[in-house]
Amino acid sequence: MGGKTEQQLRERYRRALANEGPGGSIGAAEAPMAGSSDGGAGNEPIGRLARRFVGTAWLIMRKDLVVEFRSRELFLTTLFFAVSCVLVFAFALVRDGRPMEDAAAGILWIAIAFSGTLALGRTFEREQAHHTLPALLQAPVERAAVYVGKLLGLLALLVIVELVVVPLVALFFQASLVSMAGLVSVIVLAGTVGFLAVGTLFSAMLVRTRSRDVLLPVLLYPMTLPVMLAGVRGTSALIQGTPDIASLRMWLAMLGLFDAVFLTLALWTFDAVTSE
C-alpha cells in the first residue's frame, strides 16, 4: 500500500477516535478527555462508559490490523523471524532425526518471545513515524482503551504467527503439540497475553526514547521471565510421554495470576507513562 493511502486510512481512524464511540457519535465536547478530573466521566452511566471503552479498543485494534494486512510489513517480518528461529535450532539440536529431550518447549517459547519483541518494537513506533501518536493519545477517550486496542491487535498478529510456528516445532522436534492442540492453545495463549501485557506498556513508555530498540528487550525479558518459565515448564509437562496434568494446572495458574496482575497494573499506569 502506498504512503498516501496508508496516511488516509490512519487519518480516517484518527477522526473516528475523536468523534465516534461504541454507541454512536460523540463529540469532543461531550466526551471527557482521557485522564481528566472534571467529573464529567463520573456523571455518565457505567454501561455507557464500558461500551465506549470497548468500542474504542475495538476501533484501534481494527485500524492496526487493517493497516498491517494491507502493508504486511510487520506480519511477514515477524513470521519469517519466528520460522527462522525454529529452523536454526532444529538444525542445531536434531541429530539423525532425534531431537534433544525437552527441546521443543524451549524452542517454541524462544520463537514466541523473539517474534513478540519484534512486533512490540514497531507497534507504537509506526504511529510515531506517521505523526499519528499525539492525536491518538490526545483523543477524547480513555488512554487505557488505547492500550487494550494495541494489545489486542498484537495478540491477533502473534496468534496467526503461532498457528504456523507450533506445527513447525511439532514437526521438527517430534512433539505432540498438535495432538494436544486444545491444552497447548490454552497455555500458549495465556503466556502470550502475559508477555504482551508487559511489552505493550514498555513499548509505549519507550516510544520517544532514542535507544528504544536496545532498552525494550533489556526491560522486557527480566519482567517476563516468570511467563517464559511457566510457559516452558507447562508445555514440557504437557508433551512428555505421559502428560503431567497436575503440573500443567499449577503452571497455568501461575500464568493466570501473572496476566491478571500485570494487566491491572498496565491499565492503571498507562496514562502516566504516556504523558508528556
Short recap of the structure:
With 276 residues, the protein is mainly alpha-helical. The chain is built from ten helices and four strands.
Overall spatial form: globular
Order the strands across the largest sheet as they lie in space: 1-2
SSE order: HEEHHEEHHHHHHH
Distance between termini? 32 Å
Mean pLDDT: 81
Description of the molecule:
This protein has helices spanning 3-19, 46-71, 73-93, 103-129, 133-138, 143-173, 181-205, 212-223, 225-239, 245-273, and strands at 20-21, 24-25, 94-95, 98-99. It contains 10 helices and 4 strands, in the order H-E-E-H-H-E-E-H-H-H-H-H-H-H. With 276 residues, the chain is mainly α. The relative contact order is 0.12. The two termini are 32 Å apart. It is 76% helix and 3% strand. The strands form 2 sheets. It has a two-stranded antiparallel sheet with strand order 1-2. A two-stranded antiparallel sheet has the order 3-4. The model is unreliable at 20-42 (pLDDT under 50).
